[in-house]
Design brief:
This protein is of the alpha+beta class. The chain contains nine helices and 15 strands. The structure holds 1,3-dihydroxyacetonephosphate (2 copies) and magnesium ion (2 copies).
């Protein structure tokens, strides 16, 4: 049986700065979806991580469905009205366009959707991050589906032994490429290490997969707010849907990818590198330096279009060590103040407010006599022997 899982998320205002959602706003979004989903959705869950409201929906209409997208858009609009009434900061922040015209893509909210052939038991995890960008998923998704040191199933389980196919998007050039792993592992890594440009969009099983051939098994939101708005309006705060078990990474193999905090870009003013801290929903309040960036994970199972769950998976003492490490990394990095590599490199600051500050100084610069400018430097001639 075919089913579609659509996860759509947006920041429509937060309290007091970019810390967390305001409960009545989240409640309004939940009520709107509940009141307007009859005949459209077979299951849904509304929640939040940090200041982003997250809607997980199940239906049978396939991806890019105008009614499903419209329901999420209108629910966010309804929530924004409540946010405006109480004066929440950044009310309607991610709703970048006015008129909805059939697809929420390119309008601000993040979208991750996949149409699947439901298995007898269809377990999946929705990962939600705050204060970071879509490329933050490159490292953990690669680990789940391509790194046997994280996922021993790639070695042990005959159904996983052939590996997976990765669809990688170049979000700056607007092009994509599909590469199989393990055959092209090094090529995949050559791209996805540049996480502000190359992002893993989807992972598929291969044709030869015995239980689930040629199926989409992971999808990530790749919407970049700054590319839509042309300026900094907040970070993209991505989400992902990852199917698990039975020839796919086990629940614990998927979660294990977050056990050692790694650096992601975002955090304060979308301008800093910081550790990604795995937390339960109750701890997804972005306090210290508007962070540190966090990831929460909700576990569901799907049967006949109905959802059971969620389980708040990082709300577990087993991840206390990861949280401690993330806090130590935070203490260490914060001492660097506005310096790279805590602050992002200049190329990644293009859409922030830093260029405005620098442009004010431009008239005060004078040339350095005899200095060769970078763009006029010639390629050095090297003896290749
Ligand atoms: P399955 O192959 O049934 O998914 O079991 C793997 C597992 O859960 C081991 O932890
Ligand atoms: P959000 O992208 O979560 O709204 O955060 C914006 C910000 O500037 C935090 O300092
Ligand atoms: Mg915000
Ligand atoms: Mg946010």
């Amino acid at each position: 049986m075919k089913a579609t899982i659509s996860h759509i998320k947006a920041d429509i205002g937060s309290l007091p700065g970019h810390t967390t959602v305001y409960a009545p706003v989240e409640e309004e979004v939940r009520k709107f979806v509940s009141d307007n989903s009859r005949g459209l959705l077979t299951g849904f869950h509304v929640g939040h991580v940090g200041d982003d409201i997250q809607i997980t929906m199940v239906h049978s209409r396939g991806i890019d469905n105008p009614e499903v997208h419209g329901l999420a858009w209108n629910a966010f609009k309804a929530g924004t009205e409540v946010a405006k009434k109480v004066g929440l900061y950044g009310a309607g922040q991610d709703l970048l366009k006015d008129a909805f015209s059939g697809n929420i893509k390119g309008m601000g909210p993040g979208v991750a959707e996949m149409e699947i052939t439901s298995r007898k038991s269809e377990p999946f995890i929705v990962y939600m991050m705050d204060k970071t960008e879509p490329g933050a998923f490159n490292f953990p998704i690669f680990k789940m589906f391509a790194d046997p040191f994280n996922t021993p199933g790639l070695v042990i389980d005959p159904n996983m032994h052939d590996g997976f196919r990765f669809e990688v998007w170049d979000v700056l050039e607007g092009r994509k490429i599909e590469l199989p792993s393990p055959e092209n592992t090094y090529d995949i890594l050559a791209m996805i290490g540049s996480k502000s440009r190359y992002v893993i969009k989807r992972v598929y099983t291969k044709e030869a997969h015995e239980k689930l051939p040629d199926e989409n098994v992971a999808v990530v939101t790749t919407d970049k707010l700054s590319l839509i708005a042309g300026e900094y309006v907040g970070k993209d705060d991505p989400a992902a849907i990852v199917r698990i078990q039975s020839g796919l990474p086990a629940s614990g193999e998927s979660l294990e990818a977050f056990a050692h905090p790694f650096l992601v870009s975002g955090w304060m003013r979308g301008s800093f590198n910081g550790p990604l801290m795995p937390v339960g929903i109750k701890d997804s309040k972005m306090t210290r330096f508007d962070g540190p960036p966090r990831v929460a994970a909700l576990g569901f199972v799907l049967k006949d279009g109905k959802l059971a769950g969620p389980v708040d998976l990082f709300d577990d003492v087993a991840f206390d060590g990861a949280r401690r490490t993330a806090i130590e990394m935070t203490d260490h990095l914060r001492r660097m103040g506005p310096f790279e590599p805590h602050r992002l490199p200049e190329s990644d600051m293009e859409y922030t407010t830093l260029p405005k500050v620098l442009s004010r100084l431009s008239s005060r610069f004078t040339p350095i006599e005899g200095h060769i400018k970078a763009e006029t430097l010639e390629e050095p001639t090297r003896d290749m022997d």
